[in-house]
Design goal:
The protein is an alpha+beta fold and 535 residues long. The protein is 35% helix and 19% strand. The chain starts with 16 loop residues before the first strand and ends with a strand.
């Protein structure tokens, strides 16, 4: 990739990092180092990714956990593989049952939004197909951190306190008590620099490691989840867990200015990023920070999201073919709607027919783009007593509208926000990238990729660059580092501009790029406690 590591259009918080034998980029230094340690023990990039993912459930519980979902794009022996480890709604739930319980929309907390967690199954599937090492070895660093404790990092402490304050106010029922017992045993969130440990979490990871993940779905952990659900009116059952298997899927892509951009197919929202890039490649951009560039990016994202939110759900339940949404003819049609004034996005008619992100690479050329989430911070607010398992609330994205394609149904997967990305050129791996953060993720993918491809920024500068995010209708939120004259010019075009108070809503990304000589170049997110570990 053509970038100059010494040229920055604005102040960068750190330099791009280079290595040859191995690289791990993620949001927590302890997890990144664990991945490198696994590489040095004979593991490959897949083993390193598993180790990092397991560690992140311990050292960044505000964003992911054992009870969440995961997706991965894996480059092994010159081929790209996709893994969808998102779980479906329980068989015992339905729109009628939710409405009979007195709800007109799916709640964020409690049992209604809990779907089958997929993360432990992802670890097992990756290890079994591509790993050099067993889970008993790759999960050991995470087990040690859970048993012995680790010092809480600054950004983690902030988000932990925000979650605690919210849960203290919102979660009054007895079945939420296990969350407070697990994550606030002192009656408060841990502070930066304080040690935090969880013996229950360690024991659960041991059980998963010894059974290659099976105990979570068919063993002692499944029994505990089932018992907890039954005891407080939940819908999840051990039969739901036993029936779950992660899916190996064929990644989808578009070619953007000579680079193939790869995403996981629906039920993930990576399709939104690809649709936006398809629209944008019909324009020419002279500079990263001009009002014309920003305006067209924003309009393309809005149009792509209008289609994505209208069409995306479990793949076999979609009514609009993916090929139609990604066709050149449809991109031309949507591009023609972009003019000088901001639009309110509406879905078109194409041809019929709380998250963590990590990237790893090894000296053999293997690379992994992996994302894992509990959603909305800690998730549902439910922790299975005695296990440390915080259950996610991914079902919150379902709708109770019977006529919507993403309506709640028993055994169905919802529209999913977490998306790993991967870049290739002429059939060769360029590298993994990702920007976590709910509905910011496709927007982050587009902005970061254009930073590298259109504007030739290196991976670190591409992540450092100021970001924006579309909220709804014509509302766009800007980071405070976006120049004010651009904000004023965007407002002149009809965008309803809002300034963000911080950077927590603009995603947290990681990038690893491999050169033709085999040199790895990495960038990590300045908006969190990001770190790159190298060998």
């Amino acid at each position: 990739m053509n970038f100059d590591p010494h040229v920055y259009p604005y102040a960068s918080k750190r330099n791009v990092v280079y290595a040859q034998k191995g690289m791990v980029a993620t949001s927590q230094p302890l997890a990144a180092q664990a991945g490198i340690d696994i590489l040095k023990k004979g593991g490959n990039a897949v083993d390193a990714a598993i180790a990092v993912a397991a560690c992140l459930t311990v050292v960044e519980p505000t964003s992911n956990g054992i009870g969440g979902d995961a997706f991965a794009l894996v480059w092994v022996k010159e081929k790209l593989y996709g893994l969808n480890a998102s779980g479906p709604a329980p068989q015992g739930i339905s729109i009628d049952k939710v409405k009979q319980a007195g709800y007109e929309q799916i709640q964020a907390y409690g049992w209604i939004p809990v779907t089958v967690p997929g993360a432990p199954a992802a670890w097992g599937a990756l290890a079994e197909r591509f790993g050099n090492l067993p889970l008993s070895e790759t999960l050991q660093p995470a087990i040690e951190y859970a048993e012995q404790g680790y010092p809480v990092s600054p950004t983690l402490a902030h988000h932990w306190k925000v979650a605690f304050d919210t849960y203290k106010k919102e979660l009054k029922e007895e079945h939420f008590q296990a969350w407070f017992d697990t994550f606030a045993p002192e009656g408060r969130a841990p502070k930066a620099g304080e040690l935090w440990r969880s013996a229950d979490h360690a024991n659960t990871l041991k059980s998963i490691a010894e059974s290659n993940g099976k105990s979570f779905y068919q063993g002692e952990l499944a029994e505990k989840i089932d018992q907890f659900s039954r005891s407080c009116g939940g819908y999840l059952r051990k039969e739901d867990l036993a029936g779950f298997l992660p899916e190996w899927v064929t990644p989808i892509s578009v070619n953007y200015r000579g680079y193939d951009v790869w995403e996981i197919p629906p039920n993930g929202q990576g399709l939104v990023a690809l649709m936006a890039l398809n629209i944008l490649q019909g324009f020419e951009f002279s500079s990263r920070y001009t009002v014309d560039t920003l305006h067209k990016q924003m309009e393309a994202i809005k149009l792509a999201f209008a289609d994505g939110l209208h069409a995306i759900t479990q793949a076999d339940k979609m009514q609009i073919p993916i090929d139609g949404l990604l066709s050149a003819a449809y991109a031309d049609e949507r591009r023609s709607l972009i003019h000088e004034r901001a639009l309110t996005p509406v879905a078109g008619e194409p041809p019929k027919g709380g998250t963590v992100y990590l990237a790893t690479a090894d000296q053999e050329g293997n690379m992994v783009s992996f994302i894992q989430s509990n959603y909305m911070g800690f998730g549902s607010g439910l922790v299975v007593p005695g296990t440390g398992i915080a259950l996610h609330n991914r079902g919150h994205n379902f709708t109770l509208d019977e006529n919507h394609v993403n309506r709640l149904e028993p055994g169905k997967k919802t529209y999913h926000t977490i998306i790993p990305g991967f870049l290739t050129k002429d059939g060769k791996a360029v590298g993994p990238f990702g920007v976590m953060g709910a509905f910011m993720q496709p927007q982050g993918h587009v902005q970061v990729l254009m930073n590298m491809i259109d504007f030739h920024l290196n991976p670190q500068a591409a992540l450092d660059a100021p970001r924006w995010r579309w909220i709804k209708d014509k509302i766009v939120e800007l980071e405070s580092s976006v120049p004010e004259h651009l904000a004023l010019a965007l407002a002149e075009k009809g965008h309803q501009i809002q300034w963000a108070l911080g950077s927590s809503g603009f995603g947290r990304g990681q990038i690893i790029i491999r050169s033709e000589q085999g040199v790895l170049a990495g960038g990590t997110e300045p908006r969190t406690d990001g770190a790159i570990a190298v060998w």
